[in-house]
Write a structure and sequence with these properties.
This protein is flat. It has three helices and no strands. The mean pLDDT is 82. By secondary structure, the chain is mainly α. 85% of the residues lie in helices and 0% in strands. Helix 1 packs across helix 2.
Length: 60
């Protein structure tokens, strides 16, 4: 299993646990809010590098 697949599986597991313990709207806020907050903490140059890498992976 690749590193990205392990991260994705862990994210799904955490999301399911949150849905069990919290109301669905609170779990949704956490699942969407944590990556958004992490992205906003990056420098502008790091954000550009991340967007550029994502476009290359998509084949654009």
């Amino acid at each position: 299993m690749s590193k990205n697949a392990k991260i994705a599986a862990g994210g799904v597991a955490v999301g399911l646990l949150l849905l069990i313990w919290l109301p669905w709207w609170a779990a949704l806020l956490i699942v969407l809010g944590v990556p958004a907050a992490a992205y906003l903490t990056l420098d502008p140059s790091q954000q550009r590098r991340l967007r550029r890498a994502t476009r290359k992976e998509l084949g654009r």
